[in-house]
Amino acid sequence: MAKSKFRPLHDRVVVRRVESEEKTAGGIIIPDTAKEKPQEGEVVAVGSGARDEAGKLVPLDVKAGDRVLFGKWSGTEVKLNGEDLLIMKESDIMGIIG
Prior knowledge:
Elements: E1 12-17, E2 40-46, E3 50-51, E4 57-58, E5 67-70, E6 76-80, E7 83-89, E8 93-97
Antiparallel strand pairs: 1-2, 1-7, 2-5, 3-4, 5-8, 6-7
């Protein structure tokens, strides 16, 4: 993806889903109708961070390029520059792969 002009606000993160395997370990091809949406993705952009109770800016732990795991129903699906992406809060991300 070309450098996006979209910058999420606060503690929000833009994630591109990483497509899952087309076949099982045994070689069975999984049809599109049976595929689960991947719960793994690559961080495309991050906001500046959230504010704590004292009003101090707390930077995010994730950064652009990180591979992350997130919940099945996490985020809001959006289309930016013709690409399907997810916008979610950093708290929806379970961890960084890697």
